[in-house]
Each structure stands twice: as C-alpha cells, then as structure tokens.
TrEMBL record:
It comes from the Bacteria. The keyword Signal applies. It is an enzyme of class 3 (hydrolase). One of its GO terms (molecular function) is endochitinase activity. Pfam families: Cthe_2159 (PF14262). Residues 1-26 form the signal peptide. Residues 315-360, 445-510, 684-716 are annotated as: Disordered. InterPro entries: Cthe_2159. Residues 687-696 have a biased composition (Gly residues). This is Chitinase. Its EC number is 3.2.1.14. It comes from Paenibacillus nuruki.
Length: 716
C-alpha cells in the first residue's frame, strides 16, 4: 500500500495564476475556457474534497476550423509554378526567385512546386499582408545542412499536399546556422509564422537533425497523410497544435507531438478533433504545455519502448515515508537531486531546451480531456498524465503502462467511456478521483485506485536546464536539498520522501463514486484513499491483495456508503468496511482459512433472495459487500462453493440459480455495518488509521477477530 503525495510544481502554480487573471467575462471565450481549465492547479487547496475543480473542454472551446483552413482549388487560381530541376529551379510567374539551389518566395500568393531538389532549400520571406500558399505537387526536397522548407516570415503560411501526390522532405544530420546566437531553423519543415497543412496528398519527412515539422506560432493540420521520422520531436507547435483530421505515422527520438508555449495563458495547447495516429516515441507520445483536448480519433501510441521497458517499482511500506517529494523508488529517494521534467520561464516565450526523459503516453501541464476516440497506449511511464485534471467523458482506452495508467495531480474525473487497463503499477491516481459513469477495468501490481496527496502541499524540483543561445533563462523551479526536511500543513516535519505512506496518515484526498462500473484486480490496495471514500451509485468489484500487508479497501478518513453496489474480496489482515455512519448497510466476512480463487461466495436473505454470488479471480480470506438490498434487522446466510446457472460479468452473477454450496454461517444484520466470521457476528477490526467505527483499519499485526455473538451453526 503506497501513499504518494502529489506534487504541485511552482511553475504550474505561476502558470495557473496567469490563467486565472485572464478570466473576466460571464460567458467564457475560448481563451477564458483555456485559462479556467489551466487554473485547477492553483485552486487545489480549496478543491481537494469537492467533485471537480475544472470543466471538461471540447476542441471547439479552444480552436475553430473553418473553410479558410481547407485546401484551395489551386488549379483554377492564378499561381506561380516552381519546377525543381535537381540543383536549381525554373520559375513561371511572380513572387519567387532561384539563386543556385535556394528558391526564395518574397510575396504572398499561391506557389505550386514539383520536381526534385537534391541539396537546396525553399525559403519563404514575405513582408506583405497576403498569405503564402505552398502547394507540394509531387516533390522531393533534400537539404544537407538546413531546413528544406524554411518559412522565415509570412502573414500566414499554408502547405497544401496535392491530391494523389507523395512529397518527400529530408534534411541532414547537421545544420549550418547563421551564427552562434541562433538555433533556428531546427526542423525539416520550419515556420516562424502560423502554419496550416491541408490537402489529400502524402508528406514524408525524414528529419535527421532534430524535429520533423515545427511552427513557432500556431500549427494547424486539417487533412493529409503525414509520415514523419525524426531524430527528436515529430510535430511541434509553439502556440498550439490543432488537428482536424488526417493520418499520422510518427517515429520520434523525442516526443511524438508537442506544444511548447509555457508562458502565455491562452497558448500552448493541443486540440485534436479526429484522425488516425500511430506514434512511436522515445519520450512522450503527445505532450502539451497547457491543455490536451481530444474529441475523437484512433490512437496507437508506444512511448519509451512500452511498459516492458519501465524501471522496476518498489512498493513503499509504512514508516518509510515517500510521497511528499513525489514518486520515487527507495534507492532513488536517497540519491535523486535532478528532475528531468521541469518548466521554466525566460526572457523569450519559447520553452527552454530542457530535454525530458519523460516517457508518458498522453501528457499535459494543464487539463487533459478525452471526449471520444479509440486509444491503444503502451507506455514506459504513465499512460495518461496531467499536472492538473484529467476528464474522460467517452472513448475506448486499452492501456498497458509501467507506472500509472491515469494520473492527475488534482482531479481524475471519469464520466463515460470504456477503460481497460491490462498492466499498470497503479491504475488510477489523483488527489480527487470522481467516477460517475463509464466502464473501467483495472489490473495493477500495486494499488488499483489511489486517491492520494495533500492539497496544501507544494514541492519543488531541481532541474538541469540549458538556455537557448539567444536568451538568458531563469528556472521557475527552486533547487531543493534532498536531505532537508519539509513540513505538512500542520507544521509537522517530514524526512526526505515525505509524509505519504506512513501509518495512519490522513490527507485531503477523496474517492467519490456516483455511477458507472469499476472493476479492480490489485496486488496492493484495491481502493485506496489517503482521505475518504464516498459512494452513492455505480457498481464496484475489487479482487484485492492476497497478502496481509494491503487491503481490498483502504482509507484513512471515512467510507460513507449511501448507494450503489460494492463487493471487495482479498486478504484479511487489513480488512476495512464502509463506515458506521453509512446509510446503506454492509457485511464484512472473514474466513479462518484462505478460500481458493474461483470458489463462489454466495449471500442470500432468509427468503432466498440473492445478495451476492461472486467467483473471485484470486485467493481470498475476506469479503466485504454493500448492497441496496441489505436491510438492517433482516437475516442472511453465507455460502461457499457451489455453482450458478447465470452468466458472470467480471465474476459477478446477477442472474441464474445458485446451488450446491456449503452454508458457512447464518446471522442477523444487527447494525449498519455487520462484521461476521464462521462463528457468527463479531466485532469490527480496530486499530490506528481510518475512522468511522466499523470501518476502522486494523493494525498490521492483528490476525484474529474476537467473536462476540454467535447466531448460527455451520450447515451440513
């Protein structure tokens, strides 16, 4: 059972403050919606026990795609033809000149390019107020020492991929830059103006120097097929990356798709309306400096080589600290002095040249919203990671990860969709986790669902940052001595590694379940909250740990059960049940011996009505169930073994007839939370940690319950 306390970087708080200041009108504009979503990290201290601190956005809240973004009918318009001829070009029309192998466009207009340039460059340097439209009509352009397409200046630039054509852009492994004060261009297709890519053709980019496609302003991709192989990042937009449609195959030595503006509150987001994406990245698959909003699309993302390449995780046991300074293995706690994920501010609006070793699937400094789409994510690090809030309102996600499947520093809100987590260290993690809909299945080697963190805790990270040659950069993070102590909100000191994970720790965290289906198979805790759990609807099935150091249910505050259906099976050493102040009744059954996986557990009332028929997927010694059908004062029987003629969903039978089992015990539901063993009603587990009477968590050396009332004998 791991208790990580989530970090809130100083840089994120500064960013959020900027975002909040931008909100002024009653009806939010796209800019204000963006800022409001970013602000969730700044308000964490007041939202730790509320439903959510931000609103799920749609792509239309951030960016508009209109007819002006679409490819024009260039064949019916006036255009300048540029025929590449190997080492030079033949130009028919105005606005462009060829000097040896350099073709320079100096005026707005439409330019249709075809042919091959073996070692040269197309430069756009237009000073007028007209857009520049560059139609690639079957070209092969290679530049051995610079960007083959370099847009220095234009009101707005368009690259149109002519229908049915293949266009190949290749650069060299080294660039000859103007002087030592610049690092531009840095991509095979490099634009300092807003850039829109459209058309139904194919673009192949072989970026041997650094990035594939980079815009230092807005980058819109409306359509086309883009195949990009990049030494560093595949697709980069500083102020935004907005994708309406298209087919993308990206192999990147850095990030697959990224935005970089970390200073302007209304810029630096990624918005994807649709498309098909196949991304293989050494670092993050998609990484946004602000919001990441996905309305639809098909995504196949492998980051960092996939989950099999993840570093081995070491579960932290009570008393070892850990969590206040973030997620670290035991060895790393003693030695870690440098963070590889930093956010900096500088005299320029560019992000500094900090190279991240982050290997996440989807990652954002601001909120992540998934509205629809089909996702297959295999990541060495977190599959979905936000420094603010994650919203899942729809879509289908298949996730295999070497760390968290879904992590948010503030809120994780699941209101729809289907999430299948086949491999993870922890499944769902945030300060506040709200499940109101959807179908979520979690397999975790540690905690399945972990509401962890202290809303009043802010930590900093050290960083190794290299400023660009043209700017002096100051980091927004603060170097912290790893041997120094920190304090919790009450002023208590904590050693390096922090407050999380200690016995009886209580944090401002909340797991709130109001609907949907949640199934958990965890080797650590099944449902774990450093604070409290509330449940008023939905169905939860937990196949918890088989060792007594963890529990199927684990909370430090209270577990208020007012509705819904929960069944949790696992080991008995750390058994917790809903709190006594719950309005819905619950039963906690402990066996004297371990029951084998697949052995049915069945509970029925005195009239034979089914309360529970479950085939646990792992060995178990305790069963906790809360159902609207449980009535205080009524009598119940627990059976083991037998068969059911019904159809099981996640091991739970809701139909059919149960027969052939052995009665274990009869008892009366005398209290709201009734604890039972094979001899009858017994007392609740007691000990440190947890609250709410019957839900209290036992001490780790407790192995036996004390029987106080026997109401039945064992059936023959």
């Amino acid at each position: 059972m791991k208790k990580w306390i989530t970090k809130t970087n100083l840089s994120i708080v500064l960013l959020s403050t900027l975002a909040l200041s931008a909100c002024s009108s009653a009806t939010p504009t796209a800019t204000e919606a963006l800022a409001a979503a970013t602000s969730s990290t700044a308000t964490v201290s007041t939202t730790a026990t509320t439903a959510s601190s931000s609103t799920a956005l749609k792509v239309s809240d951030l960016v508009t795609f209109d007819s002006g973004d679409d490819a024009i009918d260039w064949k019916s318009s006036d255009y300048t033809a540029i025929q590449l001829t190997g080492s030079s070009a033949t130009i028919t029309g105005n606005g462009a000149t060829a000097t040896s192998s350099i073709i320079t466009i100096t005026a707005g207009g439409t330019y249709v390019v075809s042919g091959e340039l073996t070692d040269g460059q197309i430069v756009v340097d237009s000073q007028d107020d007209q857009d520049v439209i560059l139609v690639l009509n079957g070209v092969t352009i290679t530049d051995n020492d610079s960007a083959p397409i370099y847009i220095k200046e234009a009101k707005k630039a368009f690259i149109t991929l002519a229908d049915g054509t293949e266009n190949v852009i290749t650069d060299g492994a080294t660039y000859t830059l103007a002087d030592d004060t610049t690092d531009e261009p840095s991509a095979a297709i490099f634009s300092k103006a807003d850039l829109t890519i459209n058309g139904e053709g194919t673009l192949l980019v072989n970026a041997n120097y650094k990035d594939g496609i980079t815009s230092k302003d807005d980058l819109k991709i409306v359509s086309g097929t883009l195949n990009i192989t990049a030494k560093d990042d595949g697709i980069v937009g500083k102020d935004m990356v907005a994708i309406e449609e298209g087919t993308f195959h990206v192999v990147a030595g850095g990030d697959g798709i990224k935005s970089t503006n970390d200073t302007d509150a209304d810029k630096g987001f990624i918005a994807i309306a649709g498309g098909t994406f196949d991304i293989q990245s050494t670092n993050d698959g998609i990484q946004s400096e602000k919001q990441l909003v996905i309305d639809d699309g098909t995504f196949n993302i492998v980051s960092g080589g996939g989950h099999t390449q993840a570093e081995a995780k070491v579960e932290e046991q009570p008393g070892q600290g850990g969590g206040f300074g973030g997620r670290q293995t035991q060895d790393a706690q003693a030695t870690a002095t440098t963070s590889t994920e930093t956010t900096t501010s500088s005299t320029d609006t560019d992000a500094t040249a900090t190279e991240s070793t982050s290997t996440k699937g989807l990652k954002a400094t601001g909120d992540i919203t998934i509205n629809e789409g089909t996702f297959t994510i295999d990541s060495a690090d977190d599959a979905v990671h936000s420094n603010a809030t994650v919203h899942v309102t729809g879509g289908t996600l298949e996730i295999a990860t070497g760390d968290d499947a879904m992590h948010a520093d503030v809120d994780l809100n699941i209101s729809g969709g289907k999430i299948n987590i086949t491999t993870s260290y922890e499944g769902l993690e945030a300060i506040n986790i709200n499940v109101s809909g959807g179908d979520t299945n979690v397999i975790a080697s540690d905690d399945g669902v972990n509401a962890s963190g202290d809303a009043n805790t802010t930590t900093t990270e050290t960083s190794t940052t290299e400023p660009t040659p043209t700017e002096s950069s100051t980091t927004a993070t603060t170097s912290t001595d790893p041997t120094s102590t920190a304090t919790d909100p009450a002023g208590n000191s904590a050693p390096p590694g922090g407050f999380g994970g200690g016995q009886g720790s209580s944090q401002n965290a909340l797991l709130n379940i109001t609907g949907g289906t949640l199934t958990v198979n965890a080797q650590g805790d099944g449902l774990d909250s450093n604070g409290s759990i509330t449940m008023s609807g939905g169905t939860v099935i937990v196949n918890g740990p088989t060792t007594n150091g963890n529990g199927s249910l684990d909370y430090d505050g209270t577990f208020e059960m007012t509705g819904g259906y929960v069944v949790a099976v696992g080991s008995s050493g750390m058994t917790q049940a809903p709190s006594d102040d719950s309005t819905q009744a619950a039963i906690s059954m402990s066996y004297s011996a371990t029951q084998n996986a697949g052995t049915l557990v069945h509970i029925q009332d005195s009239a034979g009505k089914n309360i529970l028929t479950l085939a646990p997927t792992k060995d178990y010694q305790s069963v906790v169930v809360s159902s609207p059908d449980l009535v205080k004062g009524s009598s119940y029987s627990i059976y083991t073994g037998g068969t059911s003629t019904g159809t099981a969903t996640d091991g739970l039978y809701t139909d059919g007839e149960y027969t052939g089992g052995t009665k274990v015990v009869d008892f009366e539901l005398a209290s709201q939370i009734t604890w039972v063993n094979e001899s009858g009603v017994t007392t609740a587990n007691t000990g440190f940690g947890g609250g709410g009477g019957g839900g209290q968590r036992p001490s780790r050396n407790m192995t036996n319950n004390t029987t106080t009332d026997s109401t039945s004998d064992t059936a023959q």
